[in-house]
Amino acid sequence: MKISLLSLxxxxxxxxxxxxxxxxxxxxxxMSSPPKLENNDQFLALAExxxxxxxxxxxxxxxxxxxxxxxxxxxxxTHLEDLYPATPIATALHTNSATHPxxxxxxxxxxxxxxxxxxxxxxxxxxxxxxxxxxxFDLFGEWFVQKLLGVKITNEQLHLLANAKxxxxxxxxxxxxxxxxxxxxxxxxLYQNDNSGQQQKIGIVDFQDALIGxxxxxxxxxxxDCYYTFSEQDIDSMLGHYISTSALFAKYDYDAPExxxxxxxxxxxxxxxxxxxxVGIFARLHLRDGKSSHLEHIPTVMKHLAGVATGYSETQDxxxxxxxxxxxxxxxxxxxxx
Length: 338
Description:
Elements: E1 4-7, E2 16-21, E3 27-32, H1 40-52, E4 60-64, E5 69-73, H2 80-83, H3 101-117, H4 130-148, H5 155-174, E6 177-180, E7 189-193, E8 200-204, E9 211-214, H6 217-223, H7 232-245, H8 257-287, H9 298-310, H10 316-324, H11 326-331, H12 333-336
Antiparallel strand pairs: 1-2, 2-3, 3-5, 4-5, 6-9, 7-8
Helix pairs in contact: 3-7, 4-5, 4-8, 5-8, 6-8, 8-9, 9-10
């Protein structure tokens, strides 16, 4: 049988993916994952664990660990991103609506899927501890501010960043803890039919870095996505849907002002830490790994970060620091030639 290979989009890893098709209507996904650069053992172990717990992760059909070659179930080609209302790529913060029925249903399905993921506990899944969170925050200053923009951080700014880091990390640690995918966004989630064709299911990829950490991390990844901006009204509505169905937040009333303020603060601070980390990683991908595909998202993420940080007294100084980087960003050759 003749097999055709179609190259698929690659995100931030060293892995390469192809959709394999033949004469039958069934297709597969072939993955090349360099053993020296990727934790393939963890990928296999979590694939089995999550599949056992009913999650829509791909089943492994064949593997060659020595070479890093895998043949997997094809979860489909409809990512959540494909269902969102179209919006142009731009450097300004856009307000879009998630009220398109299919997009809204997909997002709710993805949030509901977290009710299966979050209770999972296993010795295979380490803790998302303070040291890791702080290291991730520091990627921003090192790789984006200093190395990409070429901006020297003053002692006063170092103090500001250190204080902000403690505020954000503390919020992540004090909220309920759960099994966290850690990259739960529109490009890692697929909207698919089950075998009967009657029910929609969320397919999940890129799950090998899962940890036990803040329960709002995955909702923040989804609703404050680096690749798409929802309206605050849509975010509030979808977050309310998640909270109302989560046993982890059963003691909280999202409609009560005090509980709502606590949850929204946890959510926004978690989202800020994740996006700060993401900007640092996007810069590192360009400078260290020669991958520039994520640079185009940095300006929008930075505007989003400044907008959210401005809304909290604890992070207003951080928002001003973000805003001070607008001029260096406009003069940064890497960002002006994307």
